[in-house]
């Protein structure tokens, strides 16, 4: 009788051990099956939310850059008008700035005033480059920024930046990169749907020596239109804001589908 009872207990123990091993194997199999549909759905939702946040963040950055660009251009116009109201001469065109602006007198290499050949001629016209692609070698066009800096009416450039063109030193930067060059009666290429524009313009570009090239210019066509809406009439072929570039404009039409940075801008003085 005792032997039967012992065998019964041992059989129960073996059954429990086998059951435990079976449960472990089932648990391992379940764990090896991977994500459930619910888990996958949650993961996809999280990825979608993150991507939406990145895209929205990029839009916010571009919007902030556009707002800053508009503000800079307004500041340039205000500084020029203040300079003219104070000195009765235009920056860059001023004759003998070393006799009129103290900072120019203190620094012999500043303000393009270290010799009559480098002075403005005082004719009421800022002689700036007409090129929309090429090095800015115009004396009065470069001196424009130095005179404003020396008069402490604009703090975008240096008073004595040296002979080389450098964004942030000889010429102001833009929030999109590159910077601003003065142009007078800028001549546009045949593909830009215009032969020439009259008067003074700010030329916004990434390059001193090229303009309107694919991936080397300032902004995308869509951004160019948005900037035009903020500054002008929303039409990049009319008004005070114009776009240019062989890759930006095709047969008189803005290449809006080609969403690369291949548009440069011209903004008329106000």
Note the run of SSEs as H and E. Answer: HHHHEEHEEEE
Number of strands: 6
Output the radius of gyration.
34 Å
Cα end-to-end separation: 115 Å
Given the C-alpha coordinates, what overall shape results? elongated
Overall helicity: 40-55%
**Biggest β-sheet description:** 4 strands, antiparallel
Q: Please give the count of helices.
A: 5
Order of strands, main sheet, comes to 1-2-6-3
Give the overall average pLDDT.
78
Low-confidence stretches: none
Whole-number tally of structural domains: 1
Percentage of residues in strands: 5-15%
* Structure class: alpha+beta
Name the descriptors:
two-stranded antiparallel ribbon; alpha+beta; 270 residues; four-stranded antiparallel beta sheet; 5 helices
What would your notes on this structure say?
- It is a single chain.
- With 270 residues, this protein is an alpha+beta fold.
- The chain has five helices and six strands, in the order ααααββαββββ.
- The protein has helices spanning 2-31, 37-87, 102-106, 139-150, 221-231, and strands at residues 179-184, 200-205, 241-244, 249-250, 253-254, 264-268.
- The strands form two sheets. Strands 1-2-6-3 form a four-stranded antiparallel β-sheet.
- A hairpin with a 2-residue loop joins strand 4 (249-250) and strand 5 (253-254).
- Helix 2 (37-87) crosses helix 5.
- The mean pLDDT is 78.
